[in-house]
Amino acid sequence: MNAKKYFVAAIVLSAVLLAFATSFSIWQTKRGDNEHNPTALTGPSGKFGPVIETVLPPAKTNGTTEIFDLETGRVLLQPPFEHFNSRPDAIMGWVRSNGLDISCNVWSTGATCITYDMTVVAVEGKCWEETTEEELVADPALALGRHSPRRLLVLGHNRPDTYMFRTGEGTLGMLRIVGVNQDGSGVKICYRLINPSGGETSVVLATESRAKQGL
Predict the structure, then answer these.
(1) CB-based contacts of 182: which residues, under 8 Å, 6+ apart?
(2) How many whole angstroms separate alpha carbon 155 and alpha carbon 170?
(3) What is the average per-residue pLDDT within 154-179?
(4) % of the chain beyond a pLDDT of 90
(5) Domains: count for the chain
(6) Own/partner long-range contacts of 23-26 (Cβ < 8 Å, ≥24 apart)
């Protein structure tokens, strides 16, 4: 009789563990999808998404850099220069294949943001509020073209702090550089994104295409 009870208990325990494992697996899948969704922060149907505020982590003293992905909000640490056999083209290939967009460097007397494969156009500060989605999509300066070189956006008096941009994946947006965080832990930025195709397709296809090309 006791053996029968233990057998039933074992079956019940196994069923509970199996159900937990299944639910955990589903949660992990959903969590992974959210983390790698390339249009998580873009607006729907060609509209601006929410205003995102974040602090870009500064380059580390050993020379490595944490680079931010505007579309997903994730940050990846760039491997050391030696990892790429000291080849700048290999570094940019890694940046593009991961869809990374912007980083920063902070020092005692100033700071700068660095954009990667982004078309960036400086505009007046009032454009942050006044620029419409239609104007952004129609601006010829943001038209799709070749890969864009890295660009330094230097913080300082009489320096631009507001920009229109297009990422390497084709996502359009507005960027405002707020300034160095109070504790010096990085540069605070605000941005908002739109997908010019009015959906997720263009960003997803651009990402897949670059992965196939090994970029």
Answers:
(1) none
(2) 26
(3) 94
(4) 47
(5) 2
(6) none
- State which amino acid sits at residue 43: G
* Residue from 178, 199, 205 nearest 56 by CA: 178
Give pLDDT tens digits for 180-206.
988 888 999 999 999 766 444 333 333
| Residues 12, 95 within the same domain | no
12 and 68 together in one domain: no
Q: Residue 22 pLDDT more than 50?
A: no
Q: For residue 159, what are the β-bridge partners? A: none
Please name every residue paired with 176 in a beta bridge, in sequence order, or none if there are none.
162, 190
DSSP 8-state code for residue 142: G
105 and 143 together in one domain:
yes
**Closest C-alpha among 26, 70, 55 to residue 192:** 70
3-state secondary structure string across 82-128? HHHCCCHHHHHHHHHHCCCCEEEEEECCEEEEEECCCEEEEECCCHH
Whole-structure pTM value: 0.71
81 in the same domain as 181 = yes
Question: ∠ CA(102), CA(106), CA(109), 5° rounding?
Answer: 140
Domain of residue 201 covers: 42-213
- In DSSP notation, 12-73 reads HHHHHHHHHHHHHHHHHHHHHHHHH-TTTTEESTT-----EEEEEPBPPTTS--EEE-TTT-
